[in-house]
Structures are given as structure tokens and as C-alpha cells.
Amino acid sequence: MLCNLLDHGHAGPIKLNLEPRPNVESVIPKSGMRRLVAVTLLFVGLGEAAYGTVIVSIAQFGTVGRFAAALAWITLTYSALALWVSTQSRVPNRVLSPIYGLIQKSSHPHRASLYLHSIYNWSGPFNATALIFAAIFGARNWDPLWGFFAGTAAVGVIFYNRSVLGILGQRYVNNRGVSFVVAANLARLANKMFSGKNINGFGPLYLTFGMLNVLFYKTRYRPVDFHKVWATIRGLEDLAHPPYEDLAALSESISSLPVRDALPTQFSKFLTTMKWPSGFELVRPKRGATLSEVLTIVVTAVIAVGAVLVILPRAWQDALVLSLAGFFGQQVWNILAAIFLIAGIVYPYQTILYSLEFWMIRTYMVD
Fold first, then answer.
1. pLDDT for 302-333, tens place per residue?
2. Cβ neighbours of residue 167 closer than 8 Å, sequence gap 6 or more
3. How many other CB atoms are found less than 10 A from the CB of residue 26?
4. How much is the pTM?
5. 107: phi then psi, degrees, rounded to nearest 5
6. In this structure, are residues 112 and 40 in contact, taking their beta carbons and an 8 Å threshold?
7. What pLDDT, on the 0 to 100 scale, is given for residue 4?
8. CA 101 to CA 338: how far, in whole Å?
9. Maximum distance among all Cα pairs of the chain, rounded to whole angstroms
10. How far is it, in rounded angstroms, from Cα 353 to Cα 1?
11. Is 101 exposed, middle or buried (0-12, 13-18, 19+ CB in 10 A)?
């Protein structure tokens, strides 16, 4: 090229463009939020696809349907177990290290956390409803093996989704979606709503204290005034003009979780300002039945049924035993499959316990 310029008698200084050409990484914007959405859709979508394959297989539960259901069930079960083990380990998995804590690395971490939490809340009822429709419309093709696959897959996909979101940064401690991270973001949402004098801020604040009650129980310690503050908040909601500024300050102190240092002081200050519940006695709810008590009730019921059978004539006893033995002998697999299926329908609904409405996040959760 230089020779051509000289041949044509080019005069003046020659300017060379030394700026590097833009590569792919510089052309495509690096967005933590886009990466988070892509990873979430990929991993959660794979789990839901495996679950969908299992429940849809009842439409044609022949050789191909059985193989597809078995393959999808094994994939989902193994993935859920592997991911759950990774969330329980204190040593990060090298394979999954690129996606650890993606929520905190996004451009709007608090809003992203609550959006993903809401999606997790509704995933359980959605999967349970899909299973109900599959069982109804595929009843004529009923097979006990499908009932086992579908019921256990409905439970397995909850563990799978919880583990995926835990790796991304939600850090759930149970399948209900309880987490210090989510509790802090709920408190941050309540703070924004109370700052705008919106009484609906009691909603996310209640969810926050409900989660903290579980979390502090698991950690075996809690702030001394925790239950008093919780009782005070319940009383303040009944007021026509609740103290929004004090509620906002309380919510802001909780939003620093999992750092807990400031909570005892802020709780004490809140109670002093409210001058309540002084003069009232805190009534703790009665605990539910323990496992020992439940077993006692079951054993007592069995003994009672046995006592009734004993007083029956011998001929009646023999006829009843033969009838029951014949029925259960023929239907044992159907009965077991139905139990698994019912468990798969009921269990997923626990994810909705700490649910949050999308409009609150969209309106108030602006980072």
C-alpha cells in the first residue's frame, strides 16, 4: 500500500489508524442483570422441562413414554441432589463458581432477589396445578409407575429450584423460601413503603418477621425483644395513623441482615418510642403436637380399632381379614402410587407461604 502511495505521488504525512478494532466483548454490553436472567431461565427451565416431561408422559405411557419419564426423572433427581449438596457445602463447587452470587453482582440486586423470590413462591402451586390436570386428563392411562414418578418429581423440582436460586444468591434454608437475604430485602421494601406513608408496608414487614422467627430458631438465638417488637407491629396496624417514621427506621435496621449487631439496640429503641407493650403480658402461642404425641395418637387409634375387631364374632373376623387382604393385595401398588401422587400435589404449596405481590416490587423497589 505504501508503494502505491509513493507511485501516485501522495504528498503530506501518512496517518495510520492504530486504534484496536472492537471485539465481541466490547460490542455486547456486559450486564449483570442480563446474565442473571439468562442463567436463571437456563437452569430453572431445564428443571421444569424435566418435570414437565414426567407429568406429560401419562398421555402415552407405553414403552417410549416410560423411557422418557424414567430418563427425565433420573436427570431431575440427580440434578436436585447434586445442587442441594453444593448449597450445603461450605466449599464452593468449581464447576458452579461462575454463577455463585449472581444476584448480588447484578445491577439491581435487591429488586432481582425479590422478583426471583416471587417466581419461586408461585412455582410450587403452578407445578401442583399442572400435576392435577395431568392426573385428571390422563386418568384412563393410569399406571402406578407414573404416579410414583410424577409425585416424587413434583417434590424433587422444589428442591431443584431452591438449590438453583440458593447458588445464585438467595441462600434459602428451607423449601418455603426462608432466607436472611430475602428477609433483608423485604425489610428494605417495607422501609421504602413506610417512607412514602403507605400502610401496605406492613405486608412485607410481616413476611420479614415471619422469616426471622424461623431463622433465629434455626440459629438457636434471637434478639431479646424480638417477640415484643413483633407484637407491637401487629398492634400498630390497627391505628388510623401508624408511626411511619419509626416503622421505616425499624425496617431499615433489619435491612442490614445478615449483619445482626444493630438489631438489639434498634429493637429496644423502637419499644421505648412506642411505649408499648409495657403493661401487657406477652402470650406465646401454644406449640403444635410433637412427633412423639402424633405417634401416640396413631398407636392409640390402632389399638382402639384392634379392640373393636376383637369383640366381633370369629366368622366375621375371618371374612373381614380375607376381604381386606384380597383388596390390598390387588391394589397395593395403586395405593402406594396414589399416596406419592397426593404428596406431589400437596407438598409444593408450601412455597407460597412467604409470597409477595409483584406490584409492590415494581412500584417501590427501585435500587
1. 667 666 666 767 777 667 766 766 666 567 77
2. 83, 86, 87, 96, 99, 100
3. 10
4. 0.79
5. -70, -25
6. no
7. 46
8. 39
9. 125
10. 73
11. middle
Which range has the worst mean pLDDT, 3-17, 84-98, 216-230? 3-17
Rounded-to-integer distance, Cα 30 and Cα 223, Å: 42
* Domain ranges, ordered by start, for the chain: 29-168, 190-284
pLDDT tens track for 232-248? 898 888 888 899 999 99
Alpha-carbon gap, residue 294 to 298, rounded angstroms = 6
Q: Please give the Cα distance from 298 to 367 (Å, whole number).
A: 53
Which residues, 6 or more positions from 345, have their beta carbon under 8 angstroms from its beta carbon?
A: 128, 131, 132, 135, 151, 154
Amino acid at 231: A
Task: Say which amino acid occupies 66.
Answer: R
Q: Cβ(186)–Cβ(208) under 8 Å?
A: yes
- 3-state SS, the chain, equals CHHHHHHCCCCCCCCCCCCCCCCHHHHCCCCHHHHHHHHHHHHHHHHHHHHHHHHHHHHHCCHHHHHHHHHHHHHHHHHHHHHHHHHHCCCCCCCCHHHCCHHHHCCCHHHHHHHHHHHHHHHHHHHHHHHHHHHHHCHHHCCHHHHHHHHHHHHHHHHHHHHHHHHHCCCCCCCCCCCHHHHHHHHHHHHHHHHCCCHHHHHHHHHHHHHHHHHHHHHCCCCCCHHHHHHHHHHHCCCCCCCHHHHHHHHHHHCCCCCCCCHHHHHHHHHHHHCCCCCCCCCCCCCCCCHHHHHHHHHHHHHHHHHHHHCCCHHHHHHHHHHHHHHHHHHHHHHHHHHHHHHHHHHHHHHHCCCCCHHHHHHHCCC
What the block records as the C-alpha cell of 44 is 430453572
Distances (CA, A) of 313 to 87, 307, 310, 327: 59, 13, 8, 21
